[in-house]
Amino acid sequence: MKLFLFFALISLITACGGGGGGDGAAAPVPAPPASTETPPAIQTSTVNWSLSRVSPAEADTTVNAVEAILDHVFSDAAVQSAMLVKDGYIVGERYAEGIDANTLGTSWSVAKSYYSAAVGIAVDEGWISSLDQPASDFFTEWEGSSKSDITIRDLLEMRSGLPASSRIFFAADQTAFSLDLNKTRPEGGTFVYSNPTSQLFEPLLLRSTGLDAHSYLRQKLLSPIGINVDQIGMWRDAVGNPVTYFGLDLRPEDMARFGLLYARGGEWDGTQVVSESYVTASISAQSQFYGFQWWLMNEAYFNAAVPIQVAAALGLEGQKIYVWPEGDVVLVVFTRYEHNANAGYTLSLTNFPSTCAGRNSCNDDDVSVPSFSQYNLMFLLQELLD
């Protein structure tokens, strides 16, 4: 059955696939290059960072507004957990039967946004000179080829010219697969959602910083924002490469912390974890409705006017982080997930993140459980401030 589910998932991977893994002790951080640009220090303020649980009224909103959002999200019968954060407080949360705040969900492609942040930190630290640096400076395999002019910005914006190939999910060495893939269009042009493009963050981080992508993410992003890295999962491919286009298993609060970091311009409690300029660019439209591995819930995305400006990290089968900076609001959604952590986090035909059962999408002829309306959600989020 697991083998069948694995192959059934492949038809969905191109749309929004992903991976991660809780593997081993963190490697030591090498000293950054001398020519780094240190972000300016931030004065610690009275802004709340606790993610403590308070009543909606204590965060200047209403029970009705919070409950309307949770009711709407749970109109999707596949949802496992939802957590709503306003002003740094958890003002609402809800869990399916048998699930609680410590139950892990899986990110699928939400992980893309995390590894984009890691690339931004590598730029901030000077390991990468700029977003317009050719990726071939690190991918020597591309020197002198048609891919030599692809920039790191092109990778982040999904304008690399590489195709949206779901075959990556079958590759034992998913990094080699991505590096070997041929362009199907010029770089810097049309937006094309491509999992192999996001897998290239793995060799980029390794070759620029000297740390593998998981170690760099743990030390530079996850730990600084209060995520317990010993209690998460981070997937690897069959030869041991960190997977960076999907694959983080996390608690809802871990996702909420990352969302809050982006809602507040890359700051975490007085420390600039990711530069504000990078965060702003990440959740701004670099194409019609996509930034740096973030989706924009804008008029172009919905083909209809929206009341607020929300960015989203979106993953297969309904994994979501919504970030509304103006409202200081973050909403996290996980759908039902089946995985035994004792099986480890190495991808195989029998061990992979499985969310299709809850969505009833494991078979091609299944009638999939419909999700909630993201468009209607924008109006419900607005009610938090009204």
Query: Which CATH class is shown?
Result: Alpha Beta
Q: H/E element string?
A: HHEEEHHHHHHEEHEEHEHEEEHH
Structural domain tally? 1
Low-confidence stretches: 17-29, 34-45
Shape verdict: globular
Q: How much of the sequence is in beta strands?
A: 5-15%
Biggest sheet strand line-up = 2-1-11-10-9-8
The helix content, as a percent range, equals 25-40%
Task: Output the radius of gyration.
Answer: 20 Å
Residue-averaged pLDDT: 91
- CATH superfamily, please? DD-peptidase/beta-lactamase superfamily
Which key features would you list for this structure?
13 helices; 386 residues; Beta-lactamase; 29% helix; three-stranded antiparallel beta sheet; globular; 11 strands; six-stranded antiparallel beta sheet; alpha+beta
Question: How do the helices and strands line up, and which of them pair or pack?
Answer:
Layout: H1 2-16, H2 63-73, E1 79-86, E2 89-95, E3 105-106, H3 110-124, H4 152-156, H5 174-180, H6 195-199, H7 201-209, H8 213-222, E4 233-234, E5 248-250, H9 252-263, E6 267-268, E7 271-272, H10 276-282, E8 295-296, H11 299-302, E9 311-315, E10 319-324, E11 329-335, H12 356-359, H13 374-382
Antiparallel strand pairs: 1-2, 1-11, 3-5, 4-5, 6-7, 8-9, 9-10, 10-11
Helix pairs in contact: 3-7, 3-8
Describe the structure.
This protein is α+β, with helices and mostly antiparallel strands and 386 residues long. The chain has one domain: DD-peptidase/beta-lactamase superfamily (Beta-lactamase, 3-Layer(aba) Sandwich), CATH 3.40.710.10. Helix content is 29%, strand content 12%. It contains 13 helices and eleven strands. The protein has helices spanning 2-16, 63-73, 110-124, 152-156, 174-180, 195-199, 201-209, 213-222, 252-263, 276-282, 299-302, 356-359, 374-382; strands at residues 79-86, 89-95, 105-106, 233-234, 248-250, 267-268, 271-272, 295-296, 311-315, 319-324, 329-335. A six-stranded antiparallel beta sheet has the order 2-1-11-10-9-8, with helices on both faces. The chain has a three-stranded antiparallel beta sheet with strand order 3-5-4. A two-stranded antiparallel sheet has the order 6-7. Strand 10 and strand 11 form a beta hairpin. It is globular, with a radius of gyration of 20 Å.
